[in-house]
Amino acid sequence: MGRRIRIRLETRGIRRDMRFSSLGGEERFYLRASADEPGWIDITNASRTGGEQHLFSARNLDVAERFFWGLFGSDRRSRMHMPSLRIPIRADQVARGFCIELLGSGQSRLVDADGENVMAATSDISDVANLVRTSHWMSVPLRELKESFSHPEGRPAFQLSK
User: Considering the entire predicted model, what is its pTM?
Assistant: First the structure.
């Protein structure tokens, strides 16, 4: 069925900048300790033709790992000509146990069931979509998330897009 995706981020915290890229280096991702939120991680990306852009901030590496599993898992399905999975993207479709807070400052946050901020981004529609998708990727065990991106029908965690 093709190559397996391997993503492993050390969860002991970021002591220095981390960088990884797509095959060929077309798109690069950077993970840095946040200067604004102690203990948080800022994730940025840059393409070969553009400058570095802030994607989101994550409470920890576990949150960032789920985002990247979802991002690269979806890309892998596409390259393997597998059908797309139905992953909600609207703020009112956030996974059970999570909510999206839209702040007046043009920022948005993904908040977990304990009321803890998990992820932060702008209130731009594409950034809110990333928060919502990540809530769904975080709501299932990692093993099931990985299996779902390899399974032709998206099981056990997801259904196919219609």
Answer: 0.85
